[in-house]
């Protein structure tokens, strides 16, 4: 009798733990009515950074009433994506904070593969049909090389926010203050290899689909940069996307709080994000 009771007790405990795991884990499209209506906004952090860099921006959207849901996606160096948290019924614009474990990898192409793995995971889990992205620094290159892949089987990208993007170089590495020259279209006189790798987007980017907001910082110290990236490098995005984007706009943030690493914690940036993603 004691042995039978022990077995029954253990079975009950296991069942209870299984139930708790389901409640605390990720839900799927099977749990959500109208799953295809959910349009998440994915945040991609910069080199050497993490989801912590995305927190202020994400919570500003929550505080503005755009969503109540923040999910975290952790991407391993092998491209395996784990979701923490889940979408909630009726909250159609959830946030997904994406964290790359290989955050010191310097390959933009690899970051693009990890971005794709994240989108695929959301598609498999929630039958996602469309989404938005916000990138800071190297996170922008993850977005751009994801777009370069041009896989039309994946969800539709609707809105793209680029913050402090170093599309054509970084100060002290392959650029210097006030050296880079752009023509009227935003085309650099001298193109870095990674920028050249993105030129195909001028032909392959889905036409009239993506609304783009490009935010860059100017410390106001005469360098015309955010201290790490020249404004010209950030603005070179225009040449890659403006001709095919649904819309393209640039916004400059000026002052000490426009420094490269402070832009993701800048209330002016938060306001621009809220306005752009709301409409």
Automatic annotation (TrEMBL):
Signal sequence annotation: none
**What is the native source organism of this protein?**
Levilactobacillus tangyuanensis
What InterPro entries does the record tag this protein with? Answer: AB_hydrolase_fold, DUF915_hydro-like
Q: Please provide an example of a Pfam family that matches this protein in its UniProt record.
A: DUF915
Q: Name one GO molecular function term.
A: hydrolase activity
Q: Which SUPFAM superfamilies match?
A: alpha/beta-Hydrolases
Swiss-Prot/TrEMBL keywords = Hydrolase
UniProt name for this protein: Alpha/beta hydrolase
Under the heading Gene3D superfamilies, the entry gives: alpha/beta hydrolase
Q: Does the keyword Hydrolase apply?
A: yes
Cited PROSITE patterns: PROKAR_LIPOPROTEIN
Organism's domain of life?
Bacteria
């Amino acid at each position: 009798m004691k042995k039978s009771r022990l077995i029954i007790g253990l079975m009950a405990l296991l069942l209870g733990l299984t139930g708790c795991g389901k409640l605390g884990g990720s839900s799927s499209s099977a749990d959500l009515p109208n799953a295809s209506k959910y349009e998440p906004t994915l945040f991609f952090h910069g080199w050497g950074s993490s989801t912590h860099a995305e927190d202020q921006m994400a919570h500003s959207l929550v505080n503005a009433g755009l969503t109540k849901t923040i999910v975290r996606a952790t991407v391993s160096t092998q491209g395996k994506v784990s979701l923490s948290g889940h979408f909630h019924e009726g909250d159609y614009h959830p946030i997904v904070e994406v964290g790359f474990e290989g955050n010191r990898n310097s390959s933009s192409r690899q970051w693009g593969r990890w971005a794709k793995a994240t989108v695929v995971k959301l598609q498999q889990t929630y039958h996602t049909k469309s989404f938005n992205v916000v990138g800071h620094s190297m996170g922008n290159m993850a977005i751009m090389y994801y777009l370069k892949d041009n896989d039309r089987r994946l969800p539709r990208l609707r809105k793209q926010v680029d913050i402090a993007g170093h599309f054509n170089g970084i100060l002290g590495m392959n650029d210097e203050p006030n050296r880079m020259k752009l023509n009227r279209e935003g085309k650099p006189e001298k193109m870095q290899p990674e920028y050249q790798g993105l030129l195909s987007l001028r032909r392959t980017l889905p036409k009239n689909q993506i609304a783009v907001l490009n935010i860059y910082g100017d410390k106001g110290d005469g360098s015309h940069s955010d201290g790490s990236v020249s404004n010209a490098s950030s603005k070179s995005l225009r040449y890659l996307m403006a001709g095919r984007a649904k819309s393209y706009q640039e916004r400059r943030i000026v002052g000490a709080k426009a420094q490269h690493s402070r832009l993701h914690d800048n209330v002016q940036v938060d306001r621009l994000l809220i306005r752009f993603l709301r409409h």
